[in-house]
Amino acid sequence: MCREIWEETGINVEIDQLTGVYKNTARGIVALVFRCKPSGGVARPSSESTAVEWLTAEEITECMSEVYAVRLTDALDPQPPRVRSHDGQRLFTAEVGGIW
Predict the structure, then answer these.
(1) pTM
(2) Which fold has domain 2-96?
């Protein structure tokens, strides 16, 4: 995982902790998200990324769709890992069957 991050962003990282498990029910994909700490390198885009930017929590929610922004805002939260489901567009809430 660390090598993949470096290849796509130019940033070396150290893994801190698991911050979320996200299930795309429409595509049957489960993504595990880890908080990482930068440990070196120089930020640069690659053939697999169009930009590398440092964003505030507010900028994250303005720039990204809900199902991707929540992964980053969850990573900023010191609470235990989150488990969330979505359909690729919108997050499910517990009232709509978001617990799986």
Answers:
(1) 0.81
(2) Nucleoside Triphosphate Pyrophosphohydrolase (3.90.79)
